[in-house]
Amino acid sequence: MTQTKSQIRNDxxxxxxxxxxxxxxxxxxxxxRTNWKKxxxxxxxxxxxxxxxxSRSDFSHNRFAFFLDSLVSLKKELQAQGGDLLVVDCSxxxxxxxxxxxxxxxxxxxxxxxxxxxxxxxxxxxRDEQVKNYLDSxxxxxxxxxxxxxxxxYEILKSEKITDFYQIYSPYARKWFSQLTQTLGQDxxxxxxxxxxxxxxxxxxxxxQNFKLTxxxxxxxxxxxxxxxxxxxxxxxxxxVTIEIPPAGSLVAFRQMQDFKNKIENYQDKRDFPASPGxxxxxxxxxxxxxxxxxxxxxxxxxxxxxxxxxSANQFVKEIAWREFYYSxxxxxxxxxxxxxxxxxxxxxxxxxxxxxxxxxxxTTGFPIVDAGMRELLQTGWMHNRxxxxxxxxxxxxxxxxxxxxxxxxxxxLLDGDLAPNNGGWQWAASxxxxxxxxxxxxxxxxxxxxxxxxxxxxxxxxxxxxHVPAKALHDPEGSRSAFKYPLPIVDHKAQKEKALALYKxxxxx
Length: 510
Ligand SMILES: Cc1cc2nc3c(=O)[nH]c(=O)nc-3n(C[C@H](O)[C@H](O)[C@H](O)COP(=O)(O)OP(=O)(O)OC[C@H]3O[C@@H](n4cnc5c(N)ncnc54)[C@H](O)[C@@H]3O)c2cc1C
Description:
Strand content: 5-15%
Shape: globular
Number of strands: 5
Order of helices and strands: HEHEHEHEHEHHHHHHHHHHHHHHHHH
Oligomer: single chain
Bound molecules: flavin-adenine dinucleotide
Helix content: 40-55%
Radius of gyration: 25 Å
CATH class of the domain at 343-509: Mainly Alpha
Distance between the termini: 71 Å
C-alpha cells in the first residue's frame, strides 16, 4: 500500500532515496536493492539533469532523447510496482540541498539513506565526492555500489598497489578472464542470473507491489521546489532530434540480449562485416545501464572462457573486457580525457584542415567506405566497429587531423557515445593510446573496404550515388569516377601515409 503524506509524517520509519545516473533499470541494481532493503520498500527514485550540459560542445540531442525514453520506461516500471521516479532540472548538489531544506521546513523526515552506483569518469567522480561530503555533513547514510562493470578499475591490477594498473589490453584481459572464473566473478554473475528472472515477470506483467512510496503521496499539498522535468525535457529536446530513436528500456535491452544470444555462434565470423548484422548492438543499452555486462555474462557459458582467441562467445566476452579495460584506463589516467595516453604524442603537429574535416563529417571524402560510415553515423546514430576504426584511422593518418576533433564529432552523434570506449577507440586508432597500435600501422581504406565490404553492399546502402558502380570499382581510387554526383578522393592515400609517418617520427624525436 502506498502511504499518504500524513502517514509519513506520523511514522518514524526511515525512507531512502536512490539517485539514478547510468543504472536505468531495477533488476540486479545493487544500490537500489540495498536501499529498498534498508528502508523496507520506502525508496524513492531521483534523477538530476543539469541543463547547463545542453551547451557542451559534444552534447547529442539524439542520445539525450534515447536517455529520456529510457527514463520514461524506468519510471513506468517503478510505478507498476508502487514506486516512483522524479526527474529534476538541477545539478545534483543543488538538488540534494534543496530537497533536504524542503524536508526540514515542511516537517518531513529527511531521507535516511541515499544510494547510488559508482561511476568512474573524472567529472562524475568529482561530482560524487562533493555530494558525498554534503550528505555526510547532513548525517545521511550513503551506500554506493559496483554496477556497470563486472570488475571495477581497482580490482584488476598488476599488484596490490592501486597505481599498478595494466596499460596493455592482453595482460589486463588475461587477469580479467581469470577473475571471471574465480569466486568473485562467479558470485557476481550468479547473483545477476537470479535478477534476470525478473524480466520474465515483467514480460508477463506479474510484478509485486514492492515499493511503498510515491512522490505524489510524499508531496501531497505542499509547495515542492522541483516540478517533474521529464516531460519538459522531452518536448524541448524532441524538436532537435534528427534520427529515428530506437526503443528504450531495460526490457527491450533484455530481449535484444536474448535474441543475440541465440545467434552468438556467428559472432566470430560476422563481426567484422558491416553489411551483415553480426554484432549485438547492445552498446546503447550498456551506456545508460538499461543492461549491464554482468547481466550479459550471466546468460553465457563461462566455464571454458579464456583470454586467448577461442570461438565466438569467447570473442564476444573479450569485447566486453575491452570496454572494462578502457574504463580502467580512464580511471587510472583521467588526463586521457584531454591529452594523449602516450605523452610522446601529446604535441603532434596535426594539420587540422577545416575543409577536409567538414568533408569527413558529411561523408563526401570520395573514399566510399569512409563516407558510408560517416553517413551511417549521421543517419542512424550508430556505426559499425570495423568502420569506426577505418574512419578514425582515415581522419588521423590520411587527413592528419587531431583525434580529439573526431572524438568530439562521434560524441555529438553516437547514441552509444561513451567517454571511456570512445576515447580509447580514438587513441587506439591514432596510435597515441595505451595499447601498442604502432603509428606506422596505417589502414589502407581501399584494402579495408575490399576485405570487409567486398560486394559493396554496405557502401551502396549509405551512398545511393554509387548504386550502379560495380563492386570492384568501389575499392579503387579511380573507380567511382563514373558515378554521378560522387566526389573524387580528396587526398591520395599513399602520399598522406608518408606525411603521417613523418609527422609521428618528428613528434617522437622532438
Ligand atoms: C573510434 C572508435 C570510437 C568508439 N566509440 C565508442 C563509444 O562511444 N561507445 C561505445 O560503447 N563503444 C565505442 N567504440 C567501441 C565499439 O565500436 C562499439 O562498442 C561497438 O561497435 C558497439 O556495437 P555492438 O554493441 O554491436 O558491439 P559488439 O561487437 O556486440 O560488442 C559487445 C560489447 O562489447 C563492447 N565493445 C565492443 N567492441 C569494443 C571496443 N573496440 N572497445 C570497447 N568496447 C567494445 C561494447 O560495449 C559492445 O556493446 C568505439 C570504437 C572506435 C574504434
